[in-house]
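Sanity check

After download, print the first record. It should look like this:
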Amino acid sequence: MSGTAPGTNLEPLAIICGGGSLPIAVAEAAQGQGRRVVLFALRGSADPAAVSAFPHHWLWIGQLGHFVKLAHAEGCRDVVAIGNLIRPPLWGMRADLLALRLFPRIARAFRHGDDGLLSGVSAILEEHGFRWLGAHEVAPEILMPAGDLTRSQPTERDWTDIRRGLDLLRATGPFDVGQAVVVSDNRVLAVEAAEGTDEMLVRLATLRKAGRIHARQGGGVLVKAPKPRQDRRFDLPSIGPRTVEGVTQAGLAGIAVSAGSVVVAEIDRIATAADRAKIVVVGIAGDGAN
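Expected structure tokens:
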């Protein structure tokens, strides 16, 4: 194994791509360092138009042996996995010969949460000569900086909601529930589960329109942070322009995320859209004290 630090060598990088713009942001960042990237795009998730701009291969979830063969042929040793992905049922995987041979291990990993599943898959790949990296190790610029991204800043009421949201995420994190919560006037309105942040915000907007939530319009904060003791190579929380849209539709005051621990897609677009909507976007340093 080379002693070169992750993200600073020029060996080819394999990027396992789910949906959204983050895989492309990581690929562009790695290329900007002079590194060759090869995208392994997951069918049904990755964007064909975006993927086509890079050397790439298409895979079904479960084609473990096919990935190992192709990645070795491309000279890739470092692997990053990033992007939106709906967790498939175990019986819905298109398992190839290697996956079938390792099926008992994969089945055991499936019985755990997302972190356990990804840890199990990464251990298998490491046994085949790969090194699994976090996307932020390759492209640290995709992480949320500390401070305000927007002209609007959190009020004292917002900071109270932010601190309560962080407390709740620290409490629920060990149960692998989710990485986002909405708090308004110290009241928890929604907690992210299997649906993801975007659908949680849609649900909140629907409940508000139906009169099921009587929280004040323009109050409340979406708070996102990684789970305590989370392996940060896997599934860091993220926000993007769609998050701003969802927060606006849900009638909230803004977004607060853990600085240096949350991935930000298209940060300039986020800031512009949030300023237009007059909402707050802030990176929280430390424990959330303002």
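If your output differs, re-run the checksum step. Summary of this record's structure: Residues 26 and 228 are 24 Å apart (CA to CA).
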